[in-house]
Design brief:
Elements (H helix, E strand, L loop, with lengths): L1 H34 L3 H14 L3 H21 L3 H12 L6 H39 L3 H12 L6 H23 L25 H11 L9 E4 L8 E9 L6 E10 L6 E3 L4
Antiparallel strand pairs: 1-2, 2-3, 3-4
Length: 275
C-alpha cells in the first residue's frame, strides 16, 4: 500500500511538473510575441498557458496584450483618440510584471507618435493655408516653394497624406494658371506646344506623348519639372510620372505632381490614378 501511494504521488508530481513546464513555455512564447509587437499572438499564447494553469498572473498578461492590440488596431483605423485611450491604460497602470515592462515603452511610443502626427498636421495645415493665400495673390514662386515641401511629405498618418495630396493638387492648379496667364519663370521659354493628334491608324511616339503631358500641364520647356515615362498601363497607354526634385539637405526627395496617361491612338490625356 505504501508503495502504491508513493507511486501515485510520484505520478502526480510528474504531471504537475509537465503542466508547469508547458505553462512556462507558453508564457515565454507570449513574452517573445510581445517584444515583436505581435499582440494578438501573445494573447493566444497566454490563453494556452491559462488552460494549463489558471493564475492571476496569466489573466493579467492576457488583458494587457489585448489592450495593446486594441490600441494598435484603433490607430490603424484612424481612431487616434481611442488608440491613445487604450495605450494610456498600459502606461498609467501601477502593475509591475514582465509583460508591463515590455508594453509600457511600446504604449508610450504609440502615444508619442500620435502627438507627433497631430503637431505635423497642424504645421502642414498652416503652411497649406499660407500657400493658398500666396497663390490667390499671384505670388506663385513663394506658394510653390511651400507646396514642394508639403507634397513630398510621407507619413503613415492619413491626415498627413491628405494634406500632401491637397498640396500636389494646388501645385498643379498653379502651374495651369501660370500657363493660361502666360506666366513663365525667369530665363524659361514658354510651354511646349502639343503635338498634333495622331492620324487614323497611326500612334503617337512616347516623346510625343511626353510633349502632350507638358502641354496639358502647362510646363515651360526649361522647367525643372520632370516628365518621366513609366510602364504602360493595362490599356496599353503611355504613363508618365510628373515630379520635381527637392534639394532638401536633410531629406532630399521627389515631389510628385501626378501620374498621367496618354492614349497613343487618340492623344487623350488623363490622370492615371483616377478611377
Amino acid at each position: 500500500m505504501k508503495k502504491l501511494t508513493a507511486m501515485l504521488c510520484m505520478f502526480a508530481l510528474l504531471f504537475m511538473a509537465a503542466c508547469s513546464s508547458k505553462y512556462e513555455q507558453y508564457i515565454d512564447s507570449g513574452m517573445s510575441a510581445l517584444k515583436e509587437d505581435q499582440y494578438k499572438d501573445a494573447a493566444a499564447h497566454f490563453k494556452k498557458a491559462e488552460k494549463e494553469k489558471s493564475t492571476d498572473e496569466v489573466k493579467k498578461y492576457i488583458q494587457a496584450a489585448q489592450t495593446m492590440q486594441q490600441s494598435v488596431q484603433a490607430l490603424d483605423e484612424g481612431k487616434k483618440e481611442e488608440a491613445v485611450s487604450h495605450a494610456e491604460k498600459i502606461t498609467k497602470s501601477h502593475e509591475s510584471s514582465k509583460a508591463m515592462d515590455i508594453l509600457k515603452p511600446k504604449a508610450q511610443d504609440l502615444i508619442n507618435k500620435v502627438k507627433k502626427w497631430d503637431l505635423q498636421v497642424k504645421d502642414m495645415s498652416a503652411k497649406l493655408e499660407k500657400a493658398r493665400i500666396l497663390a490667390d495673390e499671384k505670388k506663385y514662386e513663394e506658394a510653390e516653394a511651400i507646396l514642394k515641401e508639403l507634397s513630398g511629405t510621407t507619413s503613415a498618418s492619413e491626415q498627413v497624406q491628405e494634406i500632401a495630396q491637397e498640396s500636389t493638387e494646388l501645385w498643379q492648379q498653379i502651374e495651369r494658371e501660370k500657363g493660361s496667364a502666360g506666366t513663365t519663370e525667369p530665363n524659361q521659354s514658354t510651354e511646349i506646344p502639343a503635338p498634333p493628334k495622331p492620324a487614323s491608324g497611326q500612334k503617337l511616339t512616347p516623346k510625343q506623348g511626353e510633349d502632350l503631358i507638358r502641354a496639358y500641364m502647362k510646363i515651360p520647356a526649361n522647367s525643372s519639372i520632370i516628365v518621366e515615362q513609366q510602364q504602360d498601363n493595362e490599356k496599353g497607354h503611355y504613363v508618365f510620372h510628373v515630379y520635381e526634385k527637392v534639394s532638401d539637405p536633410n531629406t532630399p526627395h521627389n515631389a510628385t505632381m501626378g501620374y498621367y496617361a496618354v492614349n497613343p491612338e487618340t492623344g487623350e490625356v488623363y490622370n492615371d490614378l483616377m478611377p
